[in-house]
Design a protein that fits this description.
mainly beta; 22 strands; 3% helix; 43% strand; globular
Amino acid sequence: MGGGGRRGGARGLAALGGAGVLLLLAPLVARPAEAGRGRLAGKIALTHGGAPKPDASGVIVYVVGFSEPPPTVIAEMAQKDKAFVPGLLAITAGQSVSFPNRDPFFHNVFSLSPPRPFDLGQYTSKSAKVRAFPNPGVVEIYCNIHPEMAATILVLPNRRFARTAADGSFAIEDVPAGAWSAFAFDPYADKPARADVTVRAGEASEPPFAALDETRAPEHLNKFGEKYKDAKGTYGR
């Protein structure tokens, strides 16, 4: 899913539909070490306008229903060639993200999403700014200078998530045993695919996901709630 200019739309938590509610409101339990752990593995079928898509890489598959502390490593979403790299990033609530500018011109990274609104201001190449993301949710990321730049950060309640390979396959290791809800998130799809799954210690389970269909390509506004100015100084894309 790497790169910017993919799509816009300040969807926030509404983009997740039921997943957003579950992600924030489902009872979270501490991961019980004595319950054992299992594995989630399977394959996501990805379509575009109903037609099979040959490359199904970049979909984020995640599990909700329990919480885990974030890793200490700082994640990264770079700005390169007027694009965010990666264009879709999954982290754990409480984790920080660095936004390095690797272009030879200014960028202004911002988000208006309720889980983590922020504005990094303009900054030059060879510099980076860091923000912490304490709350689970969907955070849409944009550049206030370049309207083609758009990305998404999924802030999840635990570390049990994975990114699909080109054939749509995925594997999530070390999932605590129990009955959970799994989701597959593609920012182009109207909503994530959901599957309820029971994980048993020492076993592999496959969530029965329905196919994801990419249909979305909405535009977005700048950080002032206005349309971007084009080269002629008028508003529009």
